[in-house]
Amino acid sequence: MDNMSPQQQQDSLTRGGQQENKRRMKFQSYRRQSAPSLVITKALTRSKTLSSSRESFLVPACPETCPLVQSFLTSSERFFLLYGHAQLKTGMQTQDRHLFLFSDVLVIAKAKSANNFKQKAQVCVCEMWTAGCMDEVCEGSTNPEQSFVMGWPTWNCVAMFSSADQKERWRSLLKSRIKEEKEKEEPKTIPLRVYGKGLNTFAVTKTLPVSNWDSANEVIRLALQQFGIIGNVKDFQLWVISKRDNTPYPLIGHEYPFSIQMSHVRNSAVQGGGRDVADRQMAMQMQVYKQCQFILKPRPVEPPQQHLPADFSQKSFKRRHSLITWAFWRGSSSHLNEMSLAGAARGCLFGQPLSSLCVEDALPKPVMDMLMFLYHEGSWTRGIFRRSAGARAVKELRESLDAGQFQLPLTRDHVFIIAGVFK
């Protein structure tokens, strides 16, 4: 500045002042924008290179070198088998997750960066199961060629992979590892206490010898024999009350009650260290009975099905149009109304216009009962609208209401079912 002429110094100060004014005006314009508008602006103006780079680090180049994988390879007996990316669906909820299968553990994680994953769940392979009843677990469209049901104690989900080859690879390897881990599991048989509810018998509790391969349907069959009840297994359902969730959970039929109880036994064994062996086993068994209970109850009676014409296809009832599809429909509103009225089954409650259901501006009794029940139980129930009660149980209650049976089972056992019907 000292070597510059007075005119040059004046021009330099002018340019500096103009740049400073531009920076100040730009900063003030950002301050005037609200936080949501900034987020929307950044999302709309985000470059393609940034979005593609974010998608690229979701799949690790070498899963074996991830810190998450290395943290589980502390034992010489454990080894890493398979990595995969899948969508896990339960009820109406869908989550993108990364799966890391070890010889004895399945780790479910969420991607944070190219080599960083946050663990969401850790499951013993010997406590897992697989099945194909996707309609019983989640709602919405699923591709059977790319999906299968997998689960662990008090949880079922539909795992949907990117291709049929990926699905078959995961399903076959999981089944193989579950079989091998169960063959090494000790003990092979445990006493399982089952409580009867609504069975019209004098006996309230029965203790059954259950093996690690007995499904929930097999336990129901053994329980019916012990209770002296002659009936079909499909007419009864086994429920689990776990202190982890603090809510009753209905089993579909393919789950392993042995694994459900043993998961609580292993958890109690970790918490009860430092005692004598006999005292620890006694305290552990009492703790398990408090934390995990199995209840056998009759299934709700299904209403009689209405006979349809022979030329009427049943396939049109399997999938209803999604609300998202309806929201982005480009047709006329009259066409939408005709389509919804034609595709929906008309009953006493569902599929009816609100004006024909309300009497003197009052909601129907089952709707008011559900509202009052959810008002009292909703604040005390964790994940009341997120957890699934099972598509079959929700469907049965909906059909009974639609057939005119307006008496709701308003107990804590049915909180997720009623929430599912109301939702």
From TrEMBL:
Q: Which domain of life is it from?
A: Eukaryota
Q: Which InterPro entries match?
A: ARHGAP20_PH, ARHGAP20_RA, PH-like_dom_sf, RA_dom, Rho_GTPase_activation_prot, RhoGAP_dom, Ubiquitin-like_domsf
- Do the record's keywords include Lipoprotein? no
The UniProt entry, under Pfam families, shows:
RA, RHG20_PH, RhoGAP
Keywords of this entry: GTPase activation
Ranges for domain Ras-associating come to 188-301
Where along the chain is composition biased (Polar residues)? 1-19
Q: Which residues form the Rho-GAP domain?
A: 352-423
* Region of interest (Disordered), ranges: 1-30
Q: What is this protein called?
A: Rho GTPase activating protein 20
